[in-house]
TrEMBL record:
Gene3D superfamilies xrefs: Homeodomain-like, Tetracycline Repressor, domain 2
Pfam family, one: TetR_N
Protein name, per record: TetR family transcriptional regulator
Organism whose genome encodes this protein: Rhizobium favelukesii
GO MF annotation list: DNA binding
This protein's record includes keyword Transcription: yes
rRNA processing recorded as keyword: no
DNA-binding region, residue range(s): 32-51
InterPro entries cross-referenced by the UniProt entry: Homeodomain-like_sf, HTH_TetR, Tet_transcr_reg_TetR-rel_C_sf
Keywords: DNA-binding, Plasmid, Transcription, Transcription regulation
Database matches in PANTHER family: TRANSCRIPTIONAL REGULATORY PROTEIN
Residue span, HTH tetR-type domain: 9-69
Length: 195
């Protein structure tokens, strides 16, 4: 049975959205095309009509995940008189820690992305730059081309803290990592210690 163009595009969007979640949950190599398509409620046969390769899907799903993460930061920032604090509280929270399929793709896939080809790495680089821009704006330090050292330090610190916290089985140590990172983010954002 032929699928209309509108249905084909809807199916494609569904596959990208589902893959965005499943890759964050299982890693790029932790789930095959059959299970990705099954998760989208489709058969594997239609995959190559929509995507040139699994890397093509990984790149598109990663871009979708990173754009979603940036939007989540903007939403959190818009709800507070201290936008950086709101982003930090959301990001360095036990709730975000538990969002493996919907949480930060830099945490879920960062080290995995570093081992992928340029097609898959590109959305991560673009997403990291977008996060730097948001951080610089939140600190009132918007720059035209290069991110500030503060933005780079804050993003690195927060991604690392969530990554380490997810590893820890000891809940108090896990929370301690998040709390320590929050204190350092505040120090960096409000101090002049970082270039």
């Amino acid at each position: 049975m032929r699928v209309s163009r509108a249905q084909a595009e809807e199916n494609r969007e569904t596959v990208i959205n589902v893959a965005s979640r499943l890759f964050r949950e299982h890693g790029f190599d932790g789930i095959g095309l059959k299970d990705l398509m099954k998760g989208a409620g489709l058969t594997q046969g239609g995959f190559y009509k929509q995507f040139s390769s699994k890397d093509d899907l990984a790149a598109q799903a990663s871009r979708r995940a990173l754009e979603s993460a940036t939007r989540r930061w903007s939403t959190a920032a818009a709800t507070s008189s201290d936008p950086l604090e709101a982003v930090m509280e959301f990001y360095l929270s036990p709730g975000h820690l538990g969002e493996k399929a919907d949480g930060c793709p830099l945490v879920a896939l960062g080290s995995d992305a570093a081992r992928q080809n340029a097609e898959v790495r590109r959305p991560f680089e673009d997403g990291i730059r977008a996060h730097f821009e948001v951080l610089d704006e939140l600190m009132g330090d918007a720059r035209s081309s290069n991110p500030s050292g503060k933005a780079m330090a804050i993003l690195s610190l927060m991604v690392g803290a969530v990554t380490l916290s997810r590893i820890m089985e000891d809940e108090s140590l896990s929370q301690g990592i998040l709390d320590a990172a929050a204190g350092e983010v505040r120090r960096i954002a409000h101090g002049d210690d970082v270039a």
